[in-house]
User: Which sequence fits this backbone?
């Protein structure tokens, strides 16, 4: 584990994830809902990993918006491989789309979308 700027966060060199120390059940629940890897102490034993048994299905929503040629190109070749440029343009002109994937891939995708100024939002629904 590599130290970070935060006293409660470390970087795991093995899995390339941020690990967040949680002290309370509220902190644990919040981190679990956000899909974060956590570390905590249970009965005197340090525990580490992604929480099991948390009923959630995270997804990434790409918001309704007018897309530039560069944004359309990214979406076509990264997400909508079988769609035409006009289909993608129309989809985001009249509504939003939702992508379901693992939390790590979703965070990486959200970061790339943000870099291209494509409006998006990560949503966690508790089932």
Assistant:
């Amino acid at each position: 584990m590599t130290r970070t700027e935060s006293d409660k966060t470390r970087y795991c060199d093995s899995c390339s994830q941020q690990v967040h120390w949680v002290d309370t059940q509220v902190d644990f629940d919040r981190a679990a809902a956000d899909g974060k890897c956590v570390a905590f102490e249970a009965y005197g034993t340090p525990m580490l990993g992604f929480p099991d048994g948390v009923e959630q299905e995270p997804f990434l929503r790409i918001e309704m918006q007018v897309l530039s040629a560069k944004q359309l190109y990214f979406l076509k070749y990264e997400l909508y491989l079988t769609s035409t440029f006009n289909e993608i343009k129309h989809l985001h002109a009249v509504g939003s789309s939702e992508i379901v994937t693992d939390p790590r891939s979703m965070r990486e995708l959200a970061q790339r979308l943000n870099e291209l100024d494509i409006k998006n939002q990560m949503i966690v629904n508790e089932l």
